[in-house]
Amino acid sequence: xxxxxxxAIKYCKxxxxxxxxxLTKFNELIYSNFSINIHKPLTLxxxxxxxxxxxFMPKDTIYQLTGEVEQNIRLSYTGGAVDVYIPHNRVxxxxxxxxxxxxxxxxxxxxxxxxxxxANMDMPIxxxxxxxGNIRLVEPDAFGVFYCKITSPExxxxxxLQKRIKGKGTVAGLGTWHxxxxxxxxxxxxxxxxxxxIIKGYQFERGNIFKDYVTKLYELRSQFAKxxxxxxxxxxxxxxxYGKFGMRLDKTITEIINLNTxxxxxxxxxxxxxxGESIQDYIELDNNKYLFVRNKxxxxxxxxxxxxxxxxxxxxxxxxxxxxxxxxxxxxxxxFNLYYSDTDSIFIDMPLPLEFIGKQLGLLKxxxxxxxxxxxxxxxxxxxxxxxxxxxxxxxxxxxxxxxxHVNDLEYLLIQxxxxxFNQHKWYKSLVKGEIGISDVxxxxxxxxxxxxxxxxxxxxxxTEPLFYDELDK
Length: 474
What we know:
Largest sheet: 7 strands, antiparallel
Oligomer: single chain
Structural class: alpha+beta
Strand content: 25-35%
Distance between the termini: 54 Å
Helix content: 25-40%
Number of strands: 20
Low-confidence stretches: 299-308, 448-474
């Protein structure tokens, strides 16, 4: 006789036992290498920060940034650039009787991009010094985060600097605008013809504070085969540290207001009058009830507080800026055509020179030689590699669904106003009824009349919401 209750209890016991054994082994690995107990940090980034603070962080270098300083510098913090430049590698016309020919492409990936930046670039350290005006007229080598009037060159095949578009992430374009920028990224952009008028900013001391941490973990990783857990652990610890510095100090608050009652109307007015600018989003529930999502801003600033917070947005901004600087050498390179780029990878039509290839930090490795490629949008592409295997990447779509999509399907979508419809199951939660259910969600992948590739989701509430755009964000 088979009893569900007994089998479920046995399953849960074995699940707990196996998890306990994994955690015990993981703790042994970390303790033997770093003398750190894993029981207190709740996440891998928190563990990375604890290891860094215990063994590698120089005294009085990383300063707590909060209040207006943190909020201003955060405006310079943007992610990697993901762009489509040339949508396919087909040489022959689409509608011809000639046998289709394609230009061979090469897909390269950078070895540990963010750890490379942390190991090799100076970071903003110490207390920030606020200034007004163009500090470079007084101190030509001033280092920090500056608010500038930015003017791009009249033409640049692949623009480098990102501009924030409210509600849509970032976009790299040409023209003139005002914005916050890391001085290292500013200096790199000047080489490509950008001009800057520095208006104000924050000056920092500079120092290489992560080299020993990255070197130790990279050496540790190289001692183990890729199949060994310590190889993956070392890789994740190398990459996870920087994210702690970029965490938000703001707290997200959600509250439901019933506008049918006098109390609700008063609460709504007070919300708009006092913290209206902090509202991030709202959702209409039913019968004039609304769910508001807002930030509770932190304005605490302690002049003498070192190491009291893991958040230092200047360091996070410098790391992502350094990564974009590292990738900029491939953006307007006359040796090849760039078809698509991700944060740490490129698709080009010529093999890279040998000096770019290797196993060391910052060098590149060849992932695929590609016979056929279709790039519809950021994170939406299909490849046919040399052995005939197809590689399909579509952000937000399950592997089960992508396994049914082929490169030829994506190639068809290069025709304007074409589309492909497919279904996948998606869990959802009803805020009104307090229940969880599952529903078929219709995904419509199409190229619209303005030639932007977008995936639309028609959800259970019959609203159409674009899942992502060709404007880019981290």
